[in-house]
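Narrative of activities, Objective 1.

The group set out to show that a structural description can be obtained from nothing but a protein's sequence at a throughput compatible with the screening campaign. Below is one input-output pair from the validation batch, recorded exactly as produced.
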Amino acid sequence: MKDEAFYNKLFIQFGQFTIAAMFIPVVAAMLHYRLLDKASRIFLLYLSVIILVNLIEQAFIWSVNNQTDLWRPFLTKFEIGDTNFLGILSFLTDFIFLGLFFSVTVVPAGIGKWIGWASVLLALIAVVDYFWITGYNATGVFTPTLDGIFASLLPLIQLGYMVRQDYKVSIYKIPYFWFSSGLIVTHLLALLFYLAGDKIYDTDFPLYVKLYLIGNCLNIASQILYAIGFRHARTLRYI
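Output recorded for this entry:
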């Protein structure tokens, strides 16, 4: 029990630290806001919504831990034992905002249009899965897998397109390169984690937390990559 309490506390505290790191690229973006193009501002909005979703989760955890009696009837009635029911917010954020971002940045325009339609379809599938298939109170595999593939494949497509272009500046000075690299770093591991995370959580909670911490470290690394991207906002005029 002591070990579980320790890992649970570590789980919460490191999650809070990760949220703090999410403000790094947002600050970098605001410092260069006038230089941002439409796509970069969409990506900034995406990062801002992610922060909001994480703050909602942390607020829920804090409230339940400090006002347990108030929440107990609600949690019992809806069979909620963790924050899985909030996961849909993250998935919809990815499908909607990343779909919008890549529909603008991936060319030719025909591919971008298909990305836009695909993102809408995936968002609808996620909602159906949340309410009528996997359910709102389970991690599930289907929607997280779709999200992991979606959020990893699109930046790979973007990078594949970029390396074939003849830009006036180095590809390493183009914000989109850093945005896509950061998405790959954080979502590829998340995909693997979602595939086995539910079973690990039930059978070996300490291992689950350790893997979660590794994922959060990569998430923090991705925030730094995003910040580097916004720092190069001046080169957007050459795209």
